[in-house]
Structures are given as structure tokens and as C-alpha cells.
Specification:
- With about 60 residues, this protein is mostly helical.
- It starts with a helix and ends with a helix.
């Protein structure tokens, strides 16, 4: 195959991956919250005993 064919294949793959990402992100954002989870709040009891450093709530714990 020629270089142009490989370039076209690479562009098609990149565009298809980008479209897949955008579509999945939009669908993720439009997904409604499951019933019963609409008003769930952060529990201080559970957060104070947790040391999971990757948690977004954990990072803000020391800043209060």
C-alpha cells in the first residue's frame, strides 16, 4: 500500500476514536441519576474513617 493509504487509514482511525469519545461522553452526561440516589450527600462518618487519597472528597477534607 502507498503512504497516502496508510495516512488515510490513520486519519479514519483517529476520527472514529474521537467520535466514539465524544458520543460516549455526551451519553454519560445525559444519563439520569438512578432512583433513590438523587439526594445522597457526603457522610462525615464514612469520610473520616476513609484514607483513600484518590477520592475527590478526601482532597478537600483538610482545606475546610
Amino acid at each position: 500500500m502507498s503512504k497516502e493509504t496508510y495516512l488515510i487509514i490513520a486519519i479514519v482511525i483517529l476520527v472514529s476514536l474521537l467520535v466514539t469519545f465524544i458520543v460516549s461522553f455526551v451519553l454519560y452526561r445525559r444519563t439520569p441519576v438512578p432512583k433513590g440516589c438523587e439526594h445522597i450527600k457526603i457522610s462525615e462518618e464514612n469520610c473520616s474513617s476513609c484514607s483513600h487519597e484518590e477520592c475527590s472528597f478526601y482532597k478537600g477534607k483538610g482545606e475546610e
